[in-house]
Structure to design on (430 residues):
């Protein structure tokens, strides 16, 4: 195993964590209205990254607790910040909880630090994932509770930073809730608990599908620098998104990691490329990846993701066991103990924030740091395998010195267009 032994977690740890989460939420419900340590009962929220997800997460945060308000917003682009706030102002359930003064609207690459310096209690980190390691570190250093969207990094250097930050969060008793939202879905939770309880027998293999169509893109405007253009189209640049097998497929990979007791695989080999989405507006990422991962006990995961229009779509998780199989997003088990979830449905995005705020109120912090770093690193390992065409071990991947930060730093100016990876030629950065 690598230097990064925090990745080793037993199935028992996993069960303990699951129970702890449920316990926290129950404790939180009874203690939810206890007084915040600062003496003022109001929890002030800062939003960092005011796009689609950030706006949604802000609404969920504001609905998670009676006494909460949004007091600061930060984004690299002022137009994004303004449209996020305008969107929230139109919604009756949260409009009364908005208190963002003009001098608490921050823009530019240091906006995150200004939000953190503005006396908030909780921050929502919803920028493109490249920035997450630095923003998360700064947030925990500043003593803030965090809602942290997935994925948490785009390279191993970022993952190692996040591992350290998650330890610091634990030491400081700060809550850190991950945006790997399926972990907060009632039906998925119960399906995964049944898998952990052995209802499909021993796991033999897992198939993860994220077969989807294309996403949004923005045509270049003449006044945009290269940096602005790439940031406004961040999905298509590996340094910003990690590629779609990291940015999107991490949701699926996370469920496989969950089924495997939150332990990492030992190696991966894969293939991928770009066939349907080759125009410059799609940057340099692939449009399909197929990766086979292997765990120490021989279990294999076959992980497929695609962003190509006009093809069959399927997003689900198929866990095959010696006594049956689970289809996780359909909340279904077939085999010796066939079962279908018929319990109460929930809005998992809302539950993430309900449990976050309840944990803050009760003083029982949630820390989702372990699985969010393992799952992000599993996704990055898959990209390393598809970009290089080589079989890559977990140890090689997690110890890689790859750091995708632009050489010139964060400047509004020229920025090289990264090359499309070519399997067999692109090398793993050791
Ligand atoms: N859990 C989920 O289901 C889910 C769904 C969608 C997105 N996400 C994740 O949420 C994150 C944001 O995705 P999105 O769809 O909201 O994208 P988006 O483009 O709509 O929003 C990102 C925002 O961050 C801003 N930004 C970029 N760099 C910044 C920086 N350095 N500092 C401050 N702001 C910066 C952008 O200008 C933009 O407004 C991504 O990590 C994505 O993977 C999760």
């Amino acid at each position: 195993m690598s230097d990064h032994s925090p990745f080793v977690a037993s199935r028992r740890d996993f069960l303990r964590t699951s129970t702890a989460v449920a316990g926290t939420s129950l404790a939180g419900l009874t203690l939810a209205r206890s007084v915040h340590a600062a003496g003022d009962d109001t929890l002030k929220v800062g939003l960092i990254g005011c796009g689609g997800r950030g706006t949604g997460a802000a609404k969920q945060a504001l609905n998670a607790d009676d006494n909460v308000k949004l007091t600061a917003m930060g984004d690299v682009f002022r137009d994004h910040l303004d449209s996020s706030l305008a969107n929230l102002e139109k919604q009756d359930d949260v409009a009364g909880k908005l208190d963002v003064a003009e001098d608490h609207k921050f823009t530019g690459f240091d906006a995150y630090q200004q939000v953190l310096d503005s006396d908030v209690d909780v921050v929502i980190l919803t920028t493109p994932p490249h920035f997450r390691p630095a923003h998360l570190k700064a947030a925990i250093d500043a003593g803030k509770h965090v809602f942290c969207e997935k994925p948490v990094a785009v390279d191993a250097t970022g993952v190692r930073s996040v591992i350290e930050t998650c330890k610091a969060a634990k030491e400081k008793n700060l809550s850190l809730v991950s945006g790997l939202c399926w972990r907060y879905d009632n039906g998925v939770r119960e399906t995964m608990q049944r898998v952990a309880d052995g209802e499909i027998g021993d796991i033999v293999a897992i198939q993860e599908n994220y077969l989807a169509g294309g996403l949004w893109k923005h045509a270049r405007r003449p006044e945009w620098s290269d940096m602005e253009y790439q940031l406004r189209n961040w999905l298509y640049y590996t340094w910003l998104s990690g590629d779609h097998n990291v940015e999107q497929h991490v949701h699926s990979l996370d469920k496989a990691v969950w089924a495997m007791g939150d332990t990492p695989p030992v190696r991966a080999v894969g293939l991928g490329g770009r066939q349907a989405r080759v125009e410059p507006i799609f940057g340099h990422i692939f449009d399909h990846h197929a990766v086979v991962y292997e765990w120490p006990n021989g279990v294999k995961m076959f992980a497929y993701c695609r962003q190509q229009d006009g093809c069959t779509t399927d997003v689900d998780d198929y866990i095959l066991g010696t006594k049956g199989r689970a289809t996780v997003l359909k909340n279904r088990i077939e085999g010796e103990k066939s079962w279908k979830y018929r319990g109460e449905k929930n809005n998992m995005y809302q539950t993430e924030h309900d449990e976050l705020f309840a944990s803050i109120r009760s003083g029982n912090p949630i820390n989702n740091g372990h699985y969010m770093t393992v799952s992000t690193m599993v996704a990055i390992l898959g990209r390393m395998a598809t970009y290089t065409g080589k079989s890559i071990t977990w140890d090689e991947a997690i110890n890689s010195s790859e750091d995708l930060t632009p050489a010139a730093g964060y400047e509004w100016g020229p920025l090289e267009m990264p090359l499309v990876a070519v399997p067999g030629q692109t090398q793993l950065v050791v």
